[in-house]
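hey
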């Protein structure tokens, strides 16, 4: 019985380690030499994360920039806020949200933050309202 248990444990360990081996599979295409795609062409990695040329042009025409954001690296139209980084104690003082570090201050204590940099807020943060850190969240 002890021998059977040893064999089963060894087999399970081998299967578990086999799951860690790198798998060959389709690789996303590399951008053309020079690093960036041509301006009239969007870089599509084959996974649907690239923005098409028409959407890219519309974004840039309205003052945005195309950036890859989030864990998936999706191309998104990003608009910077003029008051980015300004000290604040309430979101009403900012174009976007007044944000502080999530969990840095307890909700019952006074808090201040900074105005968010752009309209695509990712990461962990707490919104600051009426001088208190509220609504802590992690966005990806």
């Amino acid at each position: 019985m002890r021998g059977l248990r040893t064999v089963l444990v060894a087999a399970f360990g081998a299967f578990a380690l086999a799951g860690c081996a790198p798998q060959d599979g389709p690789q996303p295409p590399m951008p053309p030499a020079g690093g960036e795609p041509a301006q009239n062409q969007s870089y599509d990695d084959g996974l649907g994360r690239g923005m098409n040329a028409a959407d890219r042009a519309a974004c840039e025409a309205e003052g945005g920039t195309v950036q890859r954001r989030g864990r998936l690296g999706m191309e998104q139209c990003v608009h910077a806020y003029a008051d980015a980084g300004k000290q604040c104690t309430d979101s009403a003082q900012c174009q976007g949200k007044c944000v502080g570090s999530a969990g840095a201050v307890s909700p019952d204590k006074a808090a201040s933050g900074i105005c968010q940099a752009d309209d695509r807020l990712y990461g962990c943060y707490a919104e600051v309202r009426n001088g208190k850190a509220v609504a802590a969240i992690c966005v990806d």
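The chain has two domains: 35-79, 87-139. The radius of gyration is 23 Å.
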